[in-house]
Amino acid sequence: MLRPVHSLQLASKCEKTRSSFPFDFEWRGALWIIACLIISMSIVHAGNAPVEADAPPNEDQVSSAESSEENEGTDGELGGGDDDDGFDDEGDEGFDDDDDFDDEGFEEEDDLSDLSLQDLMEVEVTSVKKKKGKLKDSPAAIFVITNEDIKRSGVRTLPEALRMVPGMMVTKMESSRWAITARGFNTRFANKLLVLIDGRSVYTPLFSGVYWGAQDLLLEDVERIEVIRGPGGALWGANAVNGVINIITKSSEKTQGTFAEVGGGTHERFFSSLRYGGRISDNATYRAYMKFADREAYELANNLKADDAWNSTRGGFRVDWKPSDEDSIMAIGDVFYLNQDVSENIPTLTAPYTAALDTRTQFLGSSFLTRWDRSLSETSGLSFQFYYEHYDRDTYHSRQIRDTFDFEAEHQFQWGERHEINWGLNLRYWKDHIDQSGLISFDPISEGDTIFSLFVQDDIKIAEDLFTLTLGSKFEYNDYTKFEVQPSARFLLTPHENHTVWGAVSRAVRTPSRSDHTTFVVSAVRPPTAMTGFLPVQANFTGDKSFDSEDLYAFEMGYRTSFLENLSFDITGFFNRYENLRSLIIGSTSFSSNPVNHLDLPTAFDNDTEADAFGVEMASSWKPLKWWTITAAYTFFTLDLRTENRNAQTLAGEDHDPEHQIVFRSSINLPFECLPGKWEFDTWLYYTDALQVDYIGSTLKLDARLSWQATENVEFTIVGQNLLERQQREGLDDPLYGIGTEVPRGVYASLTLRF
Q1: What are phi and psi of 470, to 5 degrees?
Q2: Pure H helices in 220-313
Q3: DSSP codes of every residue in 702-738
Q4: What is the pLDDT of residues 127-145, one digit of tens each?
Q5: Residue 737, CB-side half-sphere exposure with 13 Å CA sphere
Q6: I need a surface site. Which of 47, 174, 278, 559 has the fewest CB within 10 A?
Q7: pLDDT digits over 530-583, tens only?
């Protein structure tokens, strides 16, 4: 068994790891090369633009201008742009070819802001069935965040945008760290939520979670975020237990020209983005972008500055090519560098038995994804996707290097008049290497794992336009628990075109991660007492290769309606039964003299916990006036964890979820003709109930945004965040050496150019 080293030896070892970090100059150079290319292309584009002094606008330009003047806020529950390029951008199928390239250029991006709420119910989504379908016909608790929602909210990161979603629990633990989940079990290492970006999973197999700070996308390029609360294992596989987040970026044909943004403020000290999109040929487009953001550190409860400032640099490209009416090919590449300051409480075997250290995390990553979609007929098609991902994450106590290869193929076809079959195969392989230290180690230090899966789903039209039954299952083989089956049955009842009732019964699993099976972690050191023979006690987490999958049996029912043109309502109720949940089994202490005399208190992972969760999620949108949209959401949630093993404990924080959450958003397009340009005013009120711990009370946040679009190409924005409090604590400390900080009041301003 691996043993911890003395704290001085640990510090020396980790400092050496940081100083040997090999990629800093190489990757920064690559990112700046991308930036120079974008600037060069923008200059060439501007220089080559034709100038026609007195050319009258054509009808399309007039129509576009009128639409822009009447632009209104969209409804988050019902919004979302569609991307009708055959199979859609995130790898889910659709077979309409209405978005073919024409001789006069590319179709402008749809403006959803002028649609009624009934029209927005017709917007296409893809995450529920892995194929295109209307939001109102989705037999699941789905919420769509549109690009307009992101813009009007004033958020600068993806995690903050997810606060709009009922049932989502978003907690900011430090300046660069979030705890995010759906329907309970929220900690920094929340492990029951699957996250995808354009079909690429960002769910790390190391601890079954997401490094949210590394997902610092250019939000201008995000077309929509589809959030499914509830199990999605029948389609998406293991770990889609409590939900699926599918982040879909825009096609490059919708990002032509130049986009530039610069701004800064109190917490968002400085940020800038530059993107250029152009045409390769009549049927191929591309874009390239560069983004930089520098964030200020937060403060501790005693008003001292925490050492958790961070900055991120990101660049990439996308190419979309349609060689024929039946085929479309897409390629995406990204590279990022993340630099995080981190305040940590490091356990030591010498007094005072913990050391408050200011450390640093460096995170480098890159990915490449390509997909070929082929339409075989109006009702059938094929899709092939491959992606490669590499990351290198260097922290004070460990360094992780991982490479992932993923290939999937999907086929959709109609069988008879009543059956729509969708099936597919997936093969994923990853290999990692983790440097050892006295605090965290893995045995073995390098490991390769393979997942092979097959899914089948059948949409059965029992009664046309009235009742549809969806049956499906995922069959998966993994190296930890071998064979897993995740079935699902869903129904959709549509008694009226504006009223929908749906229900589902599902099984989903969370398969073990690398940490569950092969990790050794020094979690804490307790000071000596008379009961311990005046010896310090070192508590250790140890992985267990007998740790099995966690099981969920979920029962859901929902209703959605848009019975008025300016009012929509959605409600979902659910009951979840969890079995074989992860718990900690506390062992007996033993004496050790390495490196100094102390007692070891071992704890091992086991499956000795069960839980019942019950909740209600509601969302509604109302347009009292053409220029004013109000969106509200409410979540009630309760979780009961239990175990019959007196030596078993749940992991810290997994039962500390708010019982009540409220979201209220108002978006106003100021209808004052006397004001020059176009003005927008948005407010966002967010409330969470107190957690079940003494020092985390309820939180109430108010954000406000004022935007002035001076011309069609120039926009000024000012945003205030957390305006009601100077600073406030949102959640528990990071369970791994974290020092919790408080979220401060903030303000930033930005200038955006589009040409």
Answers
A1: -115, 120
A2: 233-236
A3: EEEEEEEE-SSSEEEEEEEESTT-SEE--SPPPTTTB
A4: 677 777 777 788 999 999 9
A5: 23
A6: 47
A7: 999 999 999 998 999 999 999 999 999 999 998 788 899 999 999 999 999 998
